[in-house]
Every structure is written in C-alpha cells, then in structure tokens.
Design goal:
Length: 453
C-alpha cells in the first residue's frame, strides 16, 4: 500500500510535479524491476538472457587492451562475478577487491593511487571529496544513463514531488560539485558529480514471526522488555546508533533534531538509554557480520534485530520463518557510490568512464537485484530479469514461480511477496540514511562504552 496522501505511483511511470529534463524522462517511461552470497560461476548463465555489451571499435579496443582498472569497494557491491562479466564484455581488464568499511576508508586515504574506481557508501564522500587529493569530479555528460537514474539521487525527491528525508547523509546532498577540480558540494544539480549511485536498499528490523506470534509495527519493539535477552543490534557504530535512535525516538524518549547528525547531548542521552537496556539484559548479541546475523536469527537465540535484506532471505532459505518488518516510522536507507580517483587521466580515465557506463547498462543491475538490492538505473536492470523476477523484486507482486539468487539457489517460493512490497512502497518511506556525524569520533567512543558496559 502507498502512504496516505501519496499517489499510487509504479516504478517507471511516476507522475512528476517538476519540469526538469530528468523529471520529464521519468514521467514518460513505460518500464513497470550483504556479505557476498556464495556460489559458483553459474552467475553468468543465470543472467544470460540479457544482451551483452559488445561491439567496441577496434581502435578503442587496441588502445585499451593493456589497461587494468582497479575497483575497490565494500563486500556487498565489489563482487568478483561482476568483474568477471566486465572482463568478458569490455576490451580492458577490471580487477576488483572487497574491503570492510574501515579498511576501505583507510586504503582510499593512505594509498589512493592503488585504486582507480572507488566504490563507497555515500556518506564516505563527506570525508573524501573535500580533501581534494583523493577523488575527482565525474562529468555526467560522459555518462549514458544520467537521466535514467532514480531521482532520489539526482534530484533529492520522489517522482511525485515530495522531498526525500535529509536525516543522515541523503546522497543528493553530496552528489554535485561546481566543476572540475572543485571540492565543495553544490546544493542543486550541476554537470559535475562526486560519483554515480550504484546499489542501495531500505533496511529495517528482522523478526521471527513464529516465535513472536504477533505483529511488529514499530521500531521501539527493539527495546521492548518482552524480548529481553533475545534482541540484537548491529555493531557498526555509524549504523547501529541509527537503528537505536529509530527505536528510542519511536518509544518517545528523545525527539532528535537529526538522528543522522546528533549533538553531543543527544549522543549522551542515546548511549545512556542503551547502557541501561544492556545492563537490564535486553541484548543477546552485537553482530558485525552477515553470517552472525543469520545464525542468531536461524537458531532462535534472537527473535528481533537489526538486519540486512539478504540475511532475512538467507534465514528463510533454511525453511525458517523470518520477516523484514515494514515499520510505521519508515526505513533506514543506505546507498553506494562509484567515484573516479584523482590520479586518473588520459586513456585510463576514458576507460573508467566506459566501465561506469557498462556497470549501469543492466547486467550488474540484474545480478544485484537477485540479492535483494536495487539498481540506480532500474530500466536497464529490467532487461536482465524475467518478468516474474521484476514483478517480485521491484513490482511488489507475488512470485509466479520460485525466485532464485544469481547462482540459481532458491531464495523464495512461488507465491511469495517481497517484504515491504514494491520499490516505491519501500524506497518511498525513508526516515533516515546511513551517515557520518559531525561528532563522529565522539559518537564512536561513546558507542564503544555502550558495547563494553
């Protein structure tokens, strides 16, 4: 269902209240579709129905045949199968490496010339772009699909005209700069971007409905003593504190000015509440990896927790009930960006642009859709999904057949409907975004006090 007051807008056919070229493009479309999943090389075969990107001019292929692009990113986006497909389709080589958040940030700051394409969450850009020695602005005129990108990123609003929440780091806020060499973010669209969006999702709480046996409709259930000793929260400070804040504000303890950029006073009050809950035995665990979250939920040790969408599906794939609750207060969203490193120039820079165009041409979008993530250009991703897959992942429709992951493993049985519904039912209800706060160092210190208390 769509929120009261919103028009029932389906993906690809939004009614736009603006007049920009991009909004007109979205209004006229007729398209109606976290650690790494384990699998074999069957990934390529699983997406073989879509068209390959081939036919590069011979001269271009000869010029770029010795080029190697180093793509470094987080494990949920820097997936080796994507690099393998790129190497089949492109006339140059792509090498991909996945690193945890802290290691990725450290690599980009201390060894920037060992990376060509940086794949980071958008909130990293607040720290990286202003330095001036790590990233360079991206020329949107060299990108084929800019007017097809979801307007959350390029316009900061929904197709029906509403502004997207700016609590946390809304990607739009760090999307643009004035021009080449600029390091300051510009408020509003320009030709030059800090990067391009790649994958994103809307996160909420995972629950075990067979154990809880009643509806879960609010974030504050994470702190409900009814689930004492059977709750878990993500132990990544910048994200875990956002989930905690959603629960605390839902319960009425604090009304934050901006959950994604708390004052020291708000941080202190938040940690005080969390420490009190921890000492009362509320939390069973603080998890930091995908497998930990899956095992906690699958074992029944935990019945409600911070969770990622593919982890919920991984639990269900064991024939164990698990549900990603669409909560009344909305979702915590995250998004990753692909940016050009400062040192790139000449033919290697042109190859990087070609890689970014390939990346958004559809194969990658279809691949990550089958893990529960969204593409920045759904129109091209749709070409690499069956009608049934598109209807399930993007359309909020019941699956007509079994839904499989990129490797052919069954994720959902026929008749299933994606938790939370359609693309806009989920992405249209964002309450806050993953973030880095002005008081980030102070927040991390206080969070660690909470975990150690």
């Amino acid at each position: 269902m769509v929120e009261k007051g919103k028009k029932d807008v389906t993906l690809g056919t939004p009614e736009s209240t603006g007049t920009t070229a991009q909004e007109s493009s979205w209004a006229n479309k007729k398209v109606t579709r976290r650690t790494v999943l384990k699998g074999a090389a069957a990934a390529a075969a699983g997406l073989a129905a879509g068209p390959a990107i081939t036919g590069f001019p011979t001269v271009w292929a000869q010029k770029t045949k010795d080029i190697v692009l180093h793509h470094v990113g987080a494990p949920y986006s820097a997936i080796i199968d994507i690099a393998r497909q790129a190497n089949k389709d492109l006339p140059f080589k792509v090498e991909m490496q996945a690193l945890a958040h802290d290691a990725l940030r450290n690599r980009l700051v201390t060894q920037p010339k060992t990376v060509d394409v940086a794949d980071t969450e958008y909130f990293f850009l607040r720290q990286l772009m202003p330095r001036g020695d790590i990233l360079q602005p991206f020329d949107t005129k060299k990108f084929k699909y800019w007017d097809k990108i979801v307007p959350i990123f390029t316009l900061g609003k929904y197709p029906w005209g509403s502004e997207v929440s700016r609590q946390g780091v809304l990607p739009y806020e760090v999307q643009y700069v004035n021009g080449p060499g600029d390091t300051k973010f510009h408020d509003g669209p320009t030709r030059w971007a800090s990067g391009i969006p790649i994958i994103y999702n809307a996160d909420t709480l995972g629950i075990r409905p067979d154990i809880i046996k009643r509806p879960i409709e609010h974030w504050h259930e994470l702190l409900n003593p009814e689930f004492k000793g059977r709750c878990a929260i993500l132990d990544v400070p910048e994200i875990g504190i956002m989930d905690a804040a959603m629960a605390i504000e839902s319960r009425g303890d604090i009304t934050y000015g901006d959950k994604g950029n708390m004052t020291r006073e708000e941080i202190d009050k938040t940690i005080e509440i969390l420490i009190k809950a921890k000492k009362a035995g509320q939390f069973r665990a603080f998890w930091s990896t995908f497998d930990e979250s899956v095992n906690l939920m699958a074992s029944g040790e935990v019945v409600i927790q911070s969770m990622w969408s593919p982890a919920v599906t991984a639990v269900r794939s064991r024939n164990i009930p698990c549900y990603y609750a669409p909560l009344a207060e909305g979702y915590r969203a995250w998004a990753s960006s692909m940016s050009l490193m400062k040192h790139l120039s000449g033919i290697k820079l042109e190859a990087a642009y070609e890689y970014m165009n390939w990346y958004h041409s559809g194969w990658e979008g279809g691949f990550i859709a089958k893990q529960g993530y969204y593409s920045a250009v759904p129109e091209t991703a749709k070409k690499f999904l069956t009608d049934d897959e598109w209807g399930y992942w993007y359309g909020g429709k019941a699956a007509k057949g079994d839904i499989t992951d990129p490797y052919g493993n069954v994720m959902e049985k026929a008749g299933s409907i994606r938790d939370g519904g359609s693309f806009w039912d989920r992405m249209g209800k964002i309450a806050c975004w993953n973030t880095v706060m002005d008081e980030d160092r102070y927040m991390i210190r206080k969070w660690n006090e909470f975990v150690a208390s």
